[in-house]
Design brief:
Elements lengths: L1 H37 L6 H24 L4 H14 L6 H15 L6 H29 L6 H37 L10 H8 L6 E8 L2 H8 L1 H17 L6 E6 L2 E7 L3 H16 L10 E7 L6 H17 L5 E6 L1
Parallel strand pairs: 4-5
Antiparallel strand pairs: 1-3, 1-4, 2-3
């Protein structure tokens, strides 16, 4: 799946680069066509840019005047110049009104809020600029020539390839995401063992052809109290790694709660399950958990036709209780239920 994902990713980027190349090639033809007609169109954005620069400089002069009492001559010249450039056109009336209002306040020695004047002016200017930009787009569209049939087909093919690439990548992503969500929903995040939900789901698949062991760590609370919970977590994770390495590939480990775990041995009889339990018990007892020695108590049972899993768990729990009360570090075989 990962290899397929990488191949699709390479195809997608090659297609994308090819698309960019072809678009740039035909974009030059389009630009030449519209540029020929542009000389007949007087773009107002240059005028507005010039007005904007003059007005901004005027506002700086307002600041100097109000705080340093400089001459008003330059300020008035700048504002009047900006006003004259706008030529009192109807679409620029609001900008002219702001300039007139500023001039009036200067003539009557009123205080001017520079930030507000600048903000109001730019807000209107931006709105007008956008409107002029839309008009220029419409103008250029009038002179836009039809793209020839080859180009249309080419773009269509490129679009289909890109969309298909996106669709495949999206499907792969969703598939990966679904697997991750499924994994998180059925896995204990600390030990990476399966959780209770997965346990009941698996049990329903195997009828009576399985054995189960239930085990927990002897005196685990003492480990947490003595070494801290981080060390306790380390012991749990390491224990599950040991168990996983020493059972069959198809066997499954489940965390039941706290330090209690199940191991589901598919297609295994009671005698084989007992031998496996003794093997795991000895491995754990002889393993050095970074300076800590632990033991586990184990209960073993084999399923029976028609028996409910709730009863099997109860019998396992009784066997584990028996192992604890008889000295721990033991395997108790409850037999076939």
């Amino acid at each position: 799946m990962k290899k397929l994902f990488n191949i699709l990713l390479v195809i997608f980027f090659i297609t994308l680069l090819g698309s960019v190349f072809m678009i740039k090639k035909y974009e030059n033809i389009y630009i030449k066509n519209v540029a020929d007609s542009a000389i007949y169109f007087q773009n107002p954005s240059r005028l507005l840019l010039k007005v904007n620069c003059i007005f901004d400089e005027a506002i700086m002069e307002v600041h100097r005047y109000q705080y340093h009492k400089n001459s008003l001559t330059k300020l008035k010249i700048l504002l009047t110049s900006a006003k004259n450039l706008l030529k009192n056109k109807q679409e620029y009336k609001k900008l002219v009104n702001i300039i007139n209002s500023t001039l009036l306040k200067i003539d009557t020695n009123q205080n001017i809020d520079e930030n507000k004047v600048m903000r109001d002016f730019h807000k209107i200017l931006n709105k007008i600029s956008f409107s002029e930009y839309q008009k220029s787009i419409l103008f250029f569209e009038k002179y836009k020539k039809n793209i020839n049939q080859f180009q249309t087909i080419l773009y269509l093919i490129i679009l289909i390839i890109v969309l298909l690439s996106f669709a495949l990548l999206f499907i792969l992503y969703q598939s990966t995401l679904l697997r991750k969500i499924t994994y998180l929903s059925e896995t204990d995040q600390l030990t990476q063992a399966y959780n209770r939900r997965k346990f009941f789901e698996e049990i329903n698949h195997y009828g009576n052809d399985y054995s189960i062991i239930m085990f927990d760590i002897d005196h685990f609370k003492k480990i947490n109290d003595t070494y801290g919970h981080d060390k306790g977590d380390f012991v749990l994770k390491t224990l599950i790694e040991i168990i996983r390495k020493n059972i069959r590939k198809d066997d499954m480990i489940f965390r039941w709660g706290g330090e209690e775990f199940f191991v589901l041995f598919k297609h295994m009889n009671l005698e084989e399950a007992k031998k496996m339990a003794e093997k795991l018990r000895n491995l754990v007892a002889n393993y050095d958990f970074d300076g800590i020695k632990i033991t586990i108590s184990i209960s073993v049972v084999t399923s029976k036709d028609g028996e409910k899993i709730e009863k099997i768990i109860k019998i396992l729990d009784e066997g584990l209780y028996e192992a604890k009360n008889s000295g721990r570090n033991k395997v108790i075989v409850k037999g076939q239920i």
